[in-house]
Design a protein that fits this description.
It is a single chain. The protein is mainly β and 103 residues long. The chain has one domain: Immunoglobulins (Immunoglobulin-like, Sandwich). The strands form three sheets. Strands 6-5-8-9 form a four-stranded antiparallel beta sheet, with no helix packed on it. Strands 1-2-7 form a three-stranded antiparallel beta sheet, with no helix packed on it.
């Protein structure tokens, strides 16, 4: 099961793209109360949004973004049947990707 949920909505000739990503987004400065040790950094570093295979947004993300981040984008155009792909890579080398068809 993907960590990425995508929703799109057509508004006045544009397409609103909303995404919610399940990720801990630890910046490495929090302390685990049970062990009194720092929680290791674990955060998304790069977020990529594609429309029909073409990159429309490539975002550098860091540890300052909250847990389970929400991102929203407005795409000029976009038609029903077009494919939106969102992917991320984190600082531990883990990655995920999800596709969504505009309705």
């Amino acid at each position: 099961m993907s960590s990425i949920r995508i929703r799109t909505k057509r508004i006045d000739g544009k397409t609103q793209i909303r995404t919610l990503i399940t990720h801990p987004m630890e910046h490495g400065r929090n302390i685990d109360k049970s062990t009194n040790q720092p929680i290791p950094a674990h955060f998304i570093q790069e977020l990529t949004v594609k429309h029909n295979g073409k990159v429309i947004a490539n975002c550098a993300v860091g540890g300052g973004v909250s847990k389970d981040p929400y991102f929203a984008f407005m795409l000029k155009g976009g038609e029903p049947g077009d494919k939106i792909t969102i992917s991320w890579v984190d600082n531990l080398g883990r990655q995920d990707s999800e596709e969504h068809i505009i309705k």
